[in-house]
Amino acid sequence: LEHDAPITPGSVFYAGSVSKQFTAMAAALAIRAGKLRPDDDVRKYVPEVPDYGRPITIRHLLHHTSGLRDVNTLMVLAGRRDEDAFDNEAVLRIVSRQKALNFLPGDEYLYSNSGYAMLALAIERATGTPLAEYADANIFTPLGMTVTHFHTDLSRLVPGRAWAYDRRPDGTFALNAPQNERAGAGGLFTTVGDLARWDENFYDGRVGGPDIIRMLETPGRLNSGTELTYGWGL
Length: 234
Description:
Blueprint: E1 13-14, H1 19-32, H2 58-63, H3 71-77, H4 88-95, H5 113-127, H6 131-140, E2 149-150, E3 165-167, E4 173-175, E5 188-190, H7 192-204, H8 209-216
Helix pairs in contact: 1-5, 1-6, 4-5
């Protein structure tokens, strides 16, 4: 609105939690490479996560069944504003101070941005590569997603970026654009064309092949055996 610039197919949008399916794909590729295992305790890679008496596994993080309290809620309780920028290390500092879980791992499903931040850190430490670089090398570049990236540097310029707005009661608009440097639970910038390339991969399996695609589309299960409607970030 500030530059009277119309949205085009090349406009770059912040994708919010759509980011999670790319983090899950990165986890799947790391698992196939032997760097990570679905039933590993997250503390194997991120020992700063407290020991709650029952292991929180990579699988729990993927399916939002870890019981970890959501960092966005915790940030509000701590007096942080939604537009404050913070990275996964900041999330880890908050998670590491939590004395309890919302429930025992695997007992329930509860959407947790904290869980995907811990998953991102586990991937980074298991592979020795920042998630943004790992995803670029193993997902975005092979699929020709030339604009898509995890935005871990707040000062990085994004040509063609589209900003988000809220409509005020008086009909005017105000900026409502998240500022974060997290890669994992969020942080993805992309275009509709790049997302079309990603979608096509679920049919042709250029990256990962059919076995990885089946993995991503496998629903989680609770300890009770109840099947979830949530797969690997999908």
